[in-house]
Specification:
- The protein has helices at about 5-10, 10-25, 30-55, 60-75, 85-105, 115-145, 150-155, 160-185, 195-200, 205-235.
- It is mainly α.
- It folds into two domains: about 1-55; about 55-240, no CATH class.
- Helix 4 (about 60-75) crosses helix 5, helix 7 crosses helix 8 and helix 9 (about 195-200) runs antiparallel to helix 10.
- It starts with a helix and ends in a 17-residue tail after the last helix.
Length: about 250
């Protein structure tokens, strides 16, 4: 694809801008900013990846992974800023998920330990983990607020913080993982995954593209569940003080 062809694809940005302007949705500014940022960021990342792939240095691979985790943490922490220590909780979760998945992939010789495999797959893992963390935190904070009376009642009857928050925690974990699980049920019927489609467009054997896509789907399933569980169990203790009392929203 040439830059001229890419420029023509901007018509797909112009359409929502015109619709937003016509219907007075107020989405024009955000759409333009998102488009500009995506172009600049992806072009820069493309040049960086070209350099990293050429250098074949493990140090640059690590630096790219740290950049991904830092960006994901910075974005996700906004949804959990009311919970103390959310930044380090997110970092621990993202690092743990990355180490777990890459250890299995490389340890079982599913992929080669090269930048060409590690960085793109890590991008999908960390990106998916970030989205799941945001989904979980959104649901968890809403659940905690809605069930505050129930939680305090359990505490007053001698229940532990874990027992008191259990319903909110489990509900939030389930809710945040449902999109990942449900999307896998209709994969191939309702949609063809982006990576698989990209490989096919590039000329890869469709069966091999499917096999690689299945690997990513299974990988993201683990990412979703592990992320939600880790964030949940790392976060809930911050809702209670040393006397096992639930803290007010401004104290959390």
């Amino acid at each position: 694809m040439s830059y001229a062809t890419l420029a023509l694809s901007l018509v797909f940005v112009l359409i929502p801008i015109l619709l937003s302007k016509t219907l007075k949705l107020g989405l024009e500014k955000d759409t333009i900013i998102a488009t500009i940022r995506s172009i600049v960021q992806l072009l820069i990342v493309g040049m960086i990846l070209k350099f990293v792939f050429t250098s074949k240095s493990f140090i640059f691979i690590v630096l790219m992974l740290l950049l991904m985790i830092s960006a994901a943490t910075q974005n996700a922490r906004k949804k959990g800023k009311a919970i103390k220590g959310m930044t380090w909780k997110l970092v621990v979760t993202f690092v743990a998920v990355e180490v777990l998945t890459q250890s299995i992939l490389i340890g079982f010789h599913i992929i080669r330990p090269t930048a060409q495999y590690i960085i793109p797959i890590s991008g999908m893992v960390v990106g998916n983990s970030m989205v799941l963390a945001i989904l979980f935190l959104n649901r968890f904070t809403a659940e905690v607020e809605a069930r505050q009376d129930e939680t305090e009642l359990i505490l007053s009857l001698g229940g532990t913080p874990k027992q008191a928050i259990q319903a909110s925690l489990i509900s939030s974990i389930k809710a945040s993982t449902i999109p990942t699980i449900e999307s896998q049920k209709t994969i191939g019927l309702v949609q063809l995954p982006g990576m698989m489609s990209g490989q096919i467009i590039a000329g890869a054997d469709p069966v091999q593209a499917v096999q690689f896509q299945l690997l990513i789907l299974f990988l993201l399933l683990t990412t979703a569940v592990v992320t939600s569980i880790m964030i949940g169990f790392l976060s809930y203790p911050a809702l209670f003080n040393k006397r096992m009392q639930m803290m007010k929203q401004k104290e959390i």
